[in-house]
């Protein structure tokens, strides 16, 4: 029989585990770092500035002319009385583009004829709008195709009316 203080048994004594063991300290450190990383102060989210709002308005051929893309202004053109903001296509419709003749104008007749020449545009900006009554079926189909393309791609920002129309803006 063993006396107190003597270890006569052949079984090893169980060691007491310390909470401050190296592995526990490493795990605790990782936990603290992860919690801090998750809860740390973050930079406020800044959304990009969107384009200025566009108000639907009524244009006459004269008031539409100023939207020709010069001096950084937007580029608008009209097709069958609907005014489209084609500014995203400035390379095509703005100054220096292949369709720049249409910028700030009613492009209906030129699009119907598949012609981008200056003579397709209405010269008298004070006169009535082009009624397009002399167009044949193929030309009307061309015009319809262009109008659908513009409707899918660009924002309608207004309508075009003749000078003197009751809806025409007053100067």
Automatic annotation (TrEMBL):
Residues 59-161 form the Cytochrome b5 heme-binding domain. Keywords: Endoplasmic reticulum, Heme, Iron, Membrane, Metal-binding, Transmembrane, Transmembrane helix. GO terms for molecular function: heme binding; metal ion binding. The chain crosses the membrane at residues 19-39. InterPro entries: Cyt_B5-like_heme/steroid-bd, Cyt_B5-like_heme/steroid_sf, MAPR/NEUFC/NENF-like. It is found in: Endoplasmic reticulum. It comes from the Eukaryota. Its main location: endoplasmic reticulum. GO terms for cellular component: endoplasmic reticulum; membrane. It holds the Pfam family Cyt-b5. Gene3D superfamilies: Cytochrome b5-like heme/steroid binding domain. Belongs to the cytochrome b5 family. MAPR subfamily. This is Cytochrome b5 heme-binding domain-containing protein.
């Amino acid at each position: 029989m063993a006396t107190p203080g003597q270890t006569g048994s052949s079984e090893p004594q169980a060691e007491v585990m310390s909470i401050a063991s190296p592995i526990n300290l490493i795990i605790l450190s990782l936990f603290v770092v992860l919690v801090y990383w998750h809860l740390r102060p973050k930079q406020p989210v800044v959304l990009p500035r969107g384009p200025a709002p566009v108000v639907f308005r009524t244009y006459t051929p004269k008031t539409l002319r100023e939207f020709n893309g010069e001096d950084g202004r937007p580029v608008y053109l009209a097709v069958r009385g609907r005014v489209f903001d084609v500014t995203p296509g400035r390379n095509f419709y703005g100054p220096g583009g292949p369709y720049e003749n249409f910028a700030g104008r009613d492009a209906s007749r030129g699009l119907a004829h598949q012609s981008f020449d200056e003579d397709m545009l209405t010269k008298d900006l004070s006169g009535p709008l082009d009624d397009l009554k002399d167009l044949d079926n193929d030309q009307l189909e061309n015009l319809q195709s262009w109008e659908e393309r513009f409707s899918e791609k660009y924002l309608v920002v207004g309508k075009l009316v003749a000078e003197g129309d009751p809806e025409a803006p007053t100067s």
